[in-house]
Structure formats: structure tokens, C-alpha cells
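just leaving the lab so this will be short. what follows is a protein written twice so to speak, once as letters and once as C-alpha cells for the fold. can you read through it and tell me how you think this chain folds. anything you notice is useful, everything is just below:
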Amino acid sequence: MMIRYVFLLVVFFGLNSYVSALEVTAGEWEITVKQYVSGMPVGVPEQKYRECFSDDDPIPTSFLKARQCDVIKQHVRHRTVYYKVNCFTEHGSIINEGKIRFSSFKISGSSKTDLGKIAGRPNTLGYKFTGRRIGECTLAP
């Protein structure tokens, strides 16, 4: 009987910590993004974007300049979101895969977009980003 109670407590606390593991400080965040192309020595200069994050919407997509992004996969582990999204841009559909780590007022992460083969070689757009919370969300939905 005691083993059953211990097991239930372990399951309860394990699920509770999984659910609350992300805890995004909801609001508007400024993201600095560094973009690079695989096999190319020169990247694009850093750019800044603003995006609203919450526990329900923790995936950065503003730097992809997409009209809409659909979440294909999302997994949370220890304040880090691992994700895969299908985004629709003016050039067609792209798949972006990455991770973003949240602390109270800072984020960091990386992602990549597979461009397929160009001239017989696989090409990837890579992104590294950092960010900080700047306040309540004021961006239009």
C-alpha cells in the first residue's frame, strides 16, 4: 500500500514539473537574429525583431517573415522548447526546426531551414538568436 502512494506522489510531482517547466514570462520580446548559410563564409548582418511570447505561443517565427506558421512538432524540456514549424512565405512553404531556451527575461536559441539541394549540395539557412523581454505585448495580432 505504501509503495502505491509513493508511486502516485512521484507521478503527480513529475507531471506537475513537466507542465510548469516552461513558464514563459508573457509579453513582448526583442530578438536579435544572426543568419548564416551553410557553406558560405559571409552571413547576413544581425537583425532585430519583436515578437510576443506566452506559454501557449513560445515559438519564434517573426524572423522567417512568414504569413502563417503551423506547428508540426513541439516538445518542452526544462524551460527549452524544441519545435518544428511549417511556414508559408511569399516564396512558398518552408520547414524551420529549432530550439529556444527561456529564462525570466532572456532567451537564446537556434534554428535551421533546409533549402534542399542547390548545385548538387545540400543548403541550410541557420539562425542564432538571443533576446530580452521589453514589456507587455503591444503588437497587433
Remarks:
- The chain is about 15% helix and 55% strand.
- The first strand starts at residue 27 and ends at 37.
